[in-house]
Fold this sequence. Notes:
Elements: E1 11-15, H1 33-42, E2 47-49, H2 60-68, E3 73-81, H3 90-106, E4 111-116, H4 135-156, E5 159-162, H5 173-181, E6 188-193, H6 194-199, H7 204-210, E7 215-220, E8 222-223, H8 225-234, H9 238-243, E9 247-248, H10 257-265, E10 271-275, H11 287-300
Parallel strand pairs: 1-10, 2-3, 3-4, 4-5, 5-6, 6-7, 7-10
Antiparallel strand pairs: 8-9
Amino acid sequence: MTSFAPSPTGIRIGSAPDSWGVWFPDDPRQVPWERFLDEVSEAGYEWIELGPYGYLPTDPARLRDETARRGLSVSAGTVFTGLHHGPGVWERTWAHVADNAALAQAVGAGHLVVIPSFWRDDKTGEVLEDSTLTAAQWRELTTQTERLAREVRDRYGLRTVVHPHADTHIDSEENVSRFLDATDPALVSLCLDTGHYAYCGGDSVKLIETYGERIGYLHLKQVDPVILADVVANGVPFGPAVARGVMCEPPGGVPALEPVLDAARALGRDLFAIVEQDMYPCPPDKPLPVARRTREFLRACGPARPAG
């Protein structure tokens, strides 16, 4: 696992393909990966995530070369899982996880972001399963997540951070607390996405203060409260909600990021805070100016840990 120097503690700011409108390994509406790498570096970031597996080069040597010559390092890979379905989905899930984890390890990342599967289709809104888990499904979700985290740690040296996400079963304050209370802190940490947690009615500062030892990683984003109110009132699925602009450029939405970062710094340890400006699909010239302004805004929020 990538090791951090013990002091000074702080926040390492980065960005991700998501901030360039990238949701899929290959999509004609997305910018080419070379442009993403060029522009994320130009915007002033030094850390990135891998994004959807296959978007960036999957050959580790090539990816290391492409990132290094732009002054970039990789903080994490990302996977989607449906572990509440139990052992029957393990082999298929592990095949997907192993590819991502191997690449993340090979390029020096220390984390694997695990996102639960959606209960409704994020494009069409089709309901795929009940939005509420049974007690048995909760047991499968927690035990299989621990199993995944143990395997990822033992085989690849990565820390598993589970990402509460809109339109999944780990979303609200109640469900996030239930998940954390039922999982082993030695195995499972949280990727707190400030935008998704606000989208689902949660208070990020309260969560950090309550479950500080479980906060292993941050995604920084905000929601537009006016658009969110309409999305909630009309049951709009996550994908169309993003297309409406529900995730907005800081500092124009909620939660306020300064208190979140202050609460995270108060934990007294190093954390990654990766900007994820959900805006799929978007015009190809939109992301870079937004990324620049967001980086400047975050610099004004307080000191970040130097790269290294």
